[in-house]
Amino acid sequence: MTHVLAIGTRKGLWIARSDDRESWTLDGPHLLMQEVASVAWDTRRSPARLLVGTMSWHFGPTLMWTDDLGATWHETGNAAIAFPEDTGTALGRIWQLQPDRDDRPEVVWAGCEPTSLWRSDDGGETFSLVRGLWDHPHRPNWAPGFGGAAVHTIVPPPEGERMLVAMSTGGVYVSDDGATGWTPSNTGISAGFMPDPYPEYGQCVHKVAVDASGPERMYVQNHNGVYRSDDSGATWTSIAEGLPSDFGFFVLSSPHAAGTAWVMPIENGDRRIPVDGRMRLHRTRDAGATWTELGEGLPDECFSVVLRDAACVDAQDPTGVYVGTRDGVVYASADEGDSWQEVAAHLPDVLTLRATVLP
Amino acid sequence: MNDPGVTVRLPSALSDVAGARSLVVAPTPDDVAALLDGIRDENPALERRIRDETGALRRFINVYVDGDDVRHLDGPATTLRPGSEVHVIPSVAGG
C-alpha cells in the first residue's frame, strides 16, 4: 500500500509517494508550465485515474488524465470541457474535479471559470454544461472574486439527489432534483463587503466540507466567517469563536471522526498572512464548539498562505492532513494535524492537493 | 496552376500535439479562419491551443501571415495566398 499525494502548482504537477506518511519521495514535474488548479483521484476505476485540470497561459485550458501515475497522459481530442456555441463563452480554467459516489462510477463533476458546473458520464472524458446553473437568473450578479469567477466546490449527493456547489462570489447553492434547479442556501452567512451583510446570495464562500456524521452537517470557511450547518446547508451558524481570526481559505473535515474539522486562520482580508506570521492550523473535535491550535513542525516565520484547494485529507485512520503553501512548500501530518513533516519545498505556488492510497 | 498551399510554422511547445514543427496545408485556404477550421478537423487538440471555442485567437498567441500580425490585418479574415507562410508564435507572457 502506497500513500500518494498529487500536488498541483502554478507550473506543473508533482506526485509524492510514501509508505508511512512520514518520509516522502517526489516525482515530477509533470505537465511542466501548465497551471494545475484541480486534480482528482478516481479510485472507482482500476487502476485509479488521476484527472488533472490544466491551463497554459499561452495555449488555454484542458483536462488531462493518467492511469499510470503520469507515465502517459491523455486528453479528449475534441475538448473534454468546451462551452456550447450558443453561450458565446470560452472556458477559462478548471477549478474543481469531483468524482461522484461509488454507485455512479462514470459520473464526474467539474467546476469551472467562468462560473459553471459540468457533468461527465464517461469518467471525465467528455462533459456537458449543467444548464440549470448556467441559465440561473442570479448568474449576472455573481461577481468574480480576486481569483476569478468559478464554481470551486462541488459536493455530490452521497445518496439521493441533493447536491451542493459553492462559488466566489455567489455563495452556496443546492439542488434537489439532479442538478436541474438551483436555490441559494446562505442563510446566516455574512457578506461584509456588501451593503446588506446577509443577502440571499452573493457571499464569498471559500470552501465547504461535509462532516463525517453525514451530509446534514457541513462546515464553511467564508471570506470572513466560519460556519456550521446542521440542516444540509439550509441555515448556517457561526463557529468562529475561539479562533484567532475568522478569515481563511480552506476547511477540511475528517472522513471518520464526527465533529472533526480543520481551518487555517489568516489575519484578515487586508492582511493575508498567517496570524502573527505563524503557520498554524486549528482543529475542532466538537463541530466548532472549541478549537485547538496545531503546529508542531510548521514554521513560526511564515508569510505565505494555503489557498482554498491546496489542502486535503486522506481516507486513512488516523486521518492524514496535507497543506501546500503559495511559496511551494507541502506539509503532511499523519496524526490528524498534531505534528507535521515537509513533503516538498521550493515548488511553484501550490494550488491543489489530493491524497489517496494505491495498492 | 499547381497550388503549393500554405506552410504553418509552430512553436516547439506545440510540436508534441502537432507531431511536427510545421504543417503544409493545401489547397490554400481562403483565410486564417478557414486554415484553422481545417486544422480543427484534422487535429482539434492543436486548433484549440491556438483559438478558443468561440473562435477567438487565444490572448497570448500571435499569428503572423507573411510576417504581419493578423491582429493588425483583418484578423481571422486575413487572406491567404498560395505560398503564404503562417507563423504561430506565443507572445511574451507569464512569470
Q: Give the percentage of residues in beta strands of chain B.
A: 15-25%
Structural Rg of chain B:
12 Å
SS strand fraction of chain A: 35-45%
**Nearest-integer average pLDDT of chain A:** 96
Indicate the percent of residues in helices of chain A.
under 10%
Point out poorly predicted stretches of chain A: none
Straight-line N-to-C gap of chain A: 5 Å
Q: What proportion of the residues of chain B is helical, as a percent range?
A: 10-25%
Q: Number of DSSP helices of chain A?
A: 1
For the termini of chain B, the CA-CA separation is: 48 Å
Biggest interface and its residues per chain? A-B, 18 and 19 residues
Mean pLDDT of chain B, rounded to whole units?
95
Biggest sheet statistics of chain B: 5 strands, mixed
Number of strands of chain B: 5
Q: Given the C-alpha coordinates, what overall shape of chain A results?
A: globular
Overview of the molecule:
- The complex is a heterodimer of chains A (359) and B (95).
- Chain A is an all-beta fold.
- Chain A has one helix and 27 strands.
- In chain A, the strands form seven sheets. Chain A has a four-stranded antiparallel sheet, with no helix packed on it.
- The termini of chain A are close together.
- Chain B is globular.
- A five-stranded mixed sheet of chain B has the order 2-1-5-3-4, covered by helices on one side.
- Chain B is 20% helix and 22% strand.
- Chain B has 95 residues and is α+β, with helices and mostly antiparallel strands.
- Chain B has helices at residues 15-18, 32-42, 44-47; strands at residues 6-9, 22-25, 61-65, 68-69, 85-90.
- Chain B has three helices and five strands.
- In chain B, strand 3 and strand 4 (68-69) form a beta hairpin.
